[in-house]
Amino acid sequence: MSQESRPVRSGIAGLDEVLGGGFTVDRTFLIEGEPGTGKTTLGMQFLIDGARQGEPSIYVTLSETRSELLSAAQSHGWSLHGIEIYELLDPESSFQSDLQYTMFEPAEIELAETTRGLLEQIERIRPTRIVIDSLSEFRLLAQSGLRYRRQVLALKQYFTGKNCTVLLLDDMCSEGHDLQLHSIATGVLKLDRPVTDFGRERRRLRVVKFRGRQFQSGYHDFDILRGGISVYPRIMEPATGQTAEHQSLLLSGNGGLDTLLGGGVTPGTSTLLLGPAGVGKSSCSLMFAYAAAKRGEHAILYAFDEGRSTLLSRAKGLGMDLAAFESEGLLRIEVVDPGEITPGQFAYMVRQSVKGTDTGRRTSVVIIDSLNGYLSAMPEERFLHMQMHELLSYLGGHGIATFLVVAQHGMLGAAMLTPVDASYLADTVLLFRYFEADGCVRQAISVVKKRSSNHERTIREFRMQDGKIVIGEPLSQFRGILEGTPVYHGGTADLISRKPES
User: Which part of the chain is the KaiC domain (predicted)?
Assistant: First the structure.
């Protein structure tokens, strides 16, 4: 790679991934966004990364004082040692400027002095990284769009050939804000903070342009936490490192369920577990995670609706000691708060989790319990299906079997509704239903779809009793299944025996 096109790290790993490696040396970039979107934090991280590598850097500030910058850095646990901070405008001289000049407009004198002071500092320090914050002050001093554009263009030409990478921050507050700078800058990065009705605020960024570089387009979620900005790049394409052609079917450890599924679940496929609340969907999905851990493989469970202790206790009551496998590193349980996570952050969390584990074992099973909770994390999203498709394609490309638990609204009857129709995204659909037989409410399970292989088309009784999950024999005497109110008219001999209620 040539010196001119080599990437310059931004100091933010996720942003470097979005930018295709980072910024470009000896080029000027525009970072724009309204106040509070994270421009200053991004600029400081960029300079801190350079200071770690021994590069001379300078933060030129027109809008914030040195003490404010130092305070902001301290809030993140940073030190700005090795970074020159230059305040372009002296508050006292600026306050008295209207009284000092009578033959010329004060703005003309101030703009010339500001530019001259900046160039003197550049010549003295000879930095390789520069942040100028913010262009709105330059725009005010220029007073006209033509003078402002000419001034910024002159700065860009001055920096060219000096082997320095420049970030120009623009808070978009001036009335004259337009797209003039987009044509001047090599790249434009837009930071945004859309308003949400509930939960914490969401931040996202977008690369508007980047000359000479392939970058990841579209919006990418990011956070500002203690320690700086964390960017969560979108999943752009599925991984192709592993294939499931010659891999064995994944078993649940329950003979009846595996038979119903035609021998098991194909690696790299997605399975949707659909039914009313309390019917046994989550417990059924846990069998695949438990069986994977018993085989020495790694499984990950993302719990949106249930706490860790409740989940572990419920699983142990069914004969699955998940805590033991979790301590061995074979199972990971991630409790997710729907109100505190964005869709992009969750997708990035999944990607990072499946890339590698502490044990070095391959991840074979990922469970999302439930898709209802995932929906709660993005109530205003219009493209849930596309985001789910990206995530499932990525996991499938890694040969990972994904299980999606979806609770239908309502308990019985045709009034049961599904919050999102994800059935067409899934390769396999397991349908759970309550049914009436012998004066009791029972549970039924059936496979209504499986793309990868044949499956049993019967309906079996599904029951959790005596500390285990039992799948009964195929039942044929049903009526009203498609209406959502299945009623069994067969003999009781075919049903799973149950103890009398006390």
Answer: 6-245, 248-485
Judged by DSSP in three states, 43 sits in helix
DSSP string, 401-428: EEEEEEEEBSSSSTT-B-SS--TTT-SE
Beta bridge partners of 229: 224
- What is d(CA 248, CA 244) in angstroms, rounded to the nearest whole number? 8
174 and 56 inside one domain: yes
For the chain, count helices (H), then strands (E): 16, 22
The full length of the chain comes to: 502
Secondary structure class of 389 (helix, strand, coil) = helix
- Is the same domain home to 169 and 285? no
Burial class (CB in 10 A: 0-12, 13-18, 19+), 470: middle
Q: How many CB atoms lie within 10 A of CB 189?
A: 25
Q: Are residues 151 and 43 in the same domain?
A: yes
375 and 489, same domain (yes or no)? yes
Encoding tokens for residue 364? Answer: 């074979």
Sign of CA dihedral 346, 350, 352, 353: positive
d(CA 306, CA 10): 38
CATH code for the domain of 439: 3.40.50.300
Region 302-326: mean pLDDT is 92
Same domain (yes/no): 269, 398: yes
pLDDT over 70, % of the chain: 83
Is it the case that residue 383 has pLDDT exceeding 90?
no
**38 or 155, which is more confident:** 38
pLDDT tier, 302 (very low <50, low <70, confident <90, very high otherwise): very high
State the chain's mean pLDDT as an integer.
83
Together in a domain, 226 and 261: no
* Domain shared by 97 and 39, yes or no: yes
Q: In degrees rounded to 5, what are phi and psi of residue 129?
A: -135, 130
DSSP assignment of 442-492, as one string?
Answer: EEEEEEEEESSS-----EEEEEEETTEEEEEEEE--EE-TTTT--EE-S-G
Which residue range is the domain that position 315 belongs to? 255-494
Instruction: Provide the pLDDT for residue 246.
Output: 56
Sign of the four-CA dihedral 300, 304, 307, 312:
negative
- Quote the pLDDT of residue 492: 75
Nearest to 463 by CA among 432, 490, 493, 430: 432
pTM of the model: 0.81
